[in-house]
Amino acid sequence: MADKIFRVNMTDLSTSIEDVPAEWAGHGGRGLTSTIVAAEVPPTCHPLGPNNKLVFAPGLLSGTTASNSGRISAGAKSPLTGTIKEANAGGTSAQKLARIGCKALIIEGQPQDDSWYSISLKPGEITISKEEKLVGKGNFAVVEDVEKRFSDKIGVISIGQGGEMQMAAANISIKDPDSHIRSLGRGGLGAVMGSKKIKFIALDSGDAKVEIADPEAFKAANKTFTKALVDHPVSQALGTYGTNVLVNIINEAGGLPTKNFSQGQFEGHEQISGETMHDLIVERGGKPKHGCHAGCVIQCSQIYNDIKGNYKTSGIEYESIWAMGADCTIDNLDQIAEMDHILDDIGLDTIETAVAFGVAMEAGVLAFGDSNEMIRIMTEEIAKGSPLGRVIGNGAGNVGRTYGITRVPVVKNQAIPAYDPRAIKGIGVTYATSTQGADHTMGYTIATEILGVGGKADPLSKEGQVELSRNLQIATAAIDSTGMCLFIAFAALDDSTCLPSLIDMINARFGINLTANDVTNLGMTILKTEHAFNTAAGFTNLDDRLPEFFEIEPVTPHNAVWDFTGEEIDTFWNF
Amino acid sequence: MADKIFRVNMTDLSTSIEDVPAEWAGHGGRGLTSTIVAAEVPPTCHPLGPNNKLVFAPGLLSGTTASNSGRISAGAKSPLTGTIKEANAGGTSAQKLARIGCKALIIEGQPQDDSWYSISLKPGEITISKEEKLVGKGNFAVVEDVEKRFSDKIGVISIGQGGEMQMAAANISIKDPDSHIRSLGRGGLGAVMGSKKIKFIALDSGDAKVEIADPEAFKAANKTFTKALVDHPVSQALGTYGTNVLVNIINEAGGLPTKNFSQGQFEGHEQISGETMHDLIVERGGKPKHGCHAGCVIQCSQIYNDIKGNYKTSGIEYESIWAMGADCTIDNLDQIAEMDHILDDIGLDTIETAVAFGVAMEAGVLAFGDSNEMIRIMTEEIAKGSPLGRVIGNGAGNVGRTYGITRVPVVKNQAIPAYDPRAIKGIGVTYATSTQGADHTMGYTIATEILGVGGKADPLSKEGQVELSRNLQIATAAIDSTGMCLFIAFAALDDSTCLPSLIDMINARFGINLTANDVTNLGMTILKTEHAFNTAAGFTNLDDRLPEFFEIEPVTPHNAVWDFTGEEIDTFWNF
């Protein structure tokens, strides 16, 4: 049976299962969510009002046996940035959705009363149910309860208290193979789900499978693709140390934003580094290597146990550790892991929330380095929706406005992540020009600037950085459409067999004949679709700028400032 | 001696007194502040950072004997709206500044440490002093103390705790002839003054006088002008009931925004009306008629006493009474007067703050109608900078973002004042297109739509409203440059002797030959200068829109929605 569009209207609680319009057929993941949002959401609507829509889509290869193809995308107009937004995550939902035969789930409208609901999907079936029991609960309780109601094989998409309270830092949680949490992290999509009064979505694919047009060709291509992935040295480092291998590397480069972006190196970097974390995990009987979804061959995730050897958190990323660590000057991994777990449960983006804490520390709300107070605020204030909790839960920009702070590291109101753009300039181009606010994953120039993947670029020089960011942003938009993890990009940039075999898999899946050029064009089309939405929402090239403080405050150790002119940045869109 | 530019640099604490550049010579008041801000402030700078400047300017006729010429303008990039901003007020400062020979006071830079300062001006002299004693104090304590240090004749410009904490609703206070407070209310200019660490500015003009080129012609023109003012029926109504005469009128028109803009009429309107207030003031031995500055012949201000006959507040405006009254569903004038007094002391815009309370009530932070809790929050939370106090003190938009509310009545993040744009459409055009966010005083179409001054327009019809708003916005920009109170506009629209005599006074003051055409051109030039600044700051025509809820929620009693298209609104700038 051909894949369908599943549509849910929360105003009148109606549902429909529709044929896929021809113009959406070639899209998946981010390409599809952005295409649908651009087609159906009025760009100037209020993100939390009835005219916004929340769209979920598995990638083109999700649900197949293709390595690393288990990413699910969600899209909407973002309540954090006001731009179009796509966020993606691992877990089990992409594969379930694809096997259900759901090319995209579109949730529109808004209940007129205060009732809460859940949605469940099966092949050919959508059910909306009232939900009372889980309202006010965290994501872990939701997953546990939903598994009891259905089965432990059920896919779960949920929001915690953050999403219920429509906080702009709220993420959407995706159950992973161990019934833990992965996050559609950025842009506040959890608030959009909360505005539609949906506590969780249960996905039951039963025994359904994805159809492959040419199974033999698919299998052969997947073999080549998988070898390219596992052979790349960055894949191997990620498998050993996780993304947190970057703490020491970025600190060495002088680009580890510290103490709310007032320094480029953190004295306590060794205590929170990937190497230290690896040894601690091994010592406590955790897993240093772990996949966030079935079929992952890189396995950058991990199981982090507490000092007694009990599970504490999993999939703790470099960016989360940096944000709660260096940016808030906290050098205690156990405290960071505890906070990571709490934020997973409340359902808040670790980057946005921790950077918001950094700004709150700058404002004197709490002291830099006071992780006990951070934990108290998370559990006593944010989870309970106190005024301070709301201020922080609505992100770094909101804290800055509320406390009259000028050193607020955001672009389009989204917190800047773990790489200082003064010392690593290419990533600053990505922050500035991304269609979705500051986001390193939109065009990860760190690969080339710092890791030497796909060529070399001097992080302290402006030369070639706009082009580098542009090429990576185009490629990323395409990769984000396949259901592939972004970390295939390291192999794709260095191994000439990687990208062709990925394209071969897409062709074998659908019985089509995409070329490498088609894929590049897809990436460009997605960026332009997103950019056009933002323009129609009122954004201009003047929004493609970093905050003023990066231009007027040099950062140690290089004493570098952000020195791109607006004109230079604006050449990004020359394609 | 020719008027000079007084300049203060707060980064290095240097001062200078400079000749007026030729291109600034013909400007005063708003025309001058906007011209200087546009010339010297980078449009994309952070409003609270060192690159913003705060400019004060008396009007062209301030300091003379011209009736109603005592308005002072302040300008900067607004921390509330991000646009260029001008606010003006009565009191004694315009006259003092003009007599000191200060055409404009420009305050730039920002101290590098946490010290606070005061500035004092005399003819030919600027002094910067460290200030410790008054930091943390409200405006009434500041005025009392500064008068003791200097004399009770001193002019005082100050900020309360709101400005110190750089709240975006913070205003700048101007001492009036009775040592009470007038406010440069909107746009958060108090936060800019706070960011420059200036607690107060003392103005000592001694015996200095403004020079008049042709005293006889001036005197004759002023006589004609004054007669036009005092003869107009609206001037007379304003003198009897104050601006609060409007409560019953606007309620009758179905345009009195009630319960956070969810209704167009307020059940308790009679209890808070101008008629009720007039009787109460008389009964308690207050003054129903009172001028906010020497030379005012309209006298729309009043002295409001408490039930024991002691002074409570003065100059309580219709918009303040509406905001704390109908919008928060409070029908008790004594409670409203108490809040007006508290906000004067803390130094917060009554419109922005009360509309923020309305949104907070919508969010469930406190109940609609709970004035005791409002007073508690003002004194215990806002004045002390608690998280909730900061949330509300940063305005209605900030409350909306922090609590995920969609019914947030703001344009360019500034609270919409006391006239519902669905039921009184012309004023909606002004809210949408004003260069400074929602502000009724920028183009007061109520005059024509509701009061029948300067012609007639059906408030429920779109016809002619864009043109009406445009003409009034152009005229207002010119009037705001003269030092005249906006309320001369009623006479100017209906009495053919009013405007020529005003122009005659300007010509007699400076020995020049302005025509009516020149004045219209001045208004247009000011609007275009302000608009160009905003465009360079990143604003587009898509910012000239009302919030979505006005389009999708009809308001009682007319069940009207906001139905202007974007294209219709954009014709405003066709001049």
TrEMBL record, chains A, B:
Residue stretches making up the Aldehyde ferredoxin oxidoreductase N-terminal domain: 1-207
Molecular function, one GO term: oxidoreductase activity, acting on the aldehyde or oxo group of donors, iron-sulfur protein as acceptor
Keywords: 4Fe-4S, Iron, Iron-sulfur, Metal-binding, Oxidoreductase
UniProt feature coiled coil, ranges: none
SMART domains per the UniProt record, alphabetical: AFOR_N
Highest taxon of source: Bacteria
Cofactor: [4Fe-4S] cluster; tungstopterin
UniProt similarity note: Belongs to the AOR/FOR family.
Descriptive protein name: Aldehyde:ferredoxin oxidoreductase
Source organism of this protein record: Desulfocapsa sulfexigens (strain DSM 10523 / SB164P1)
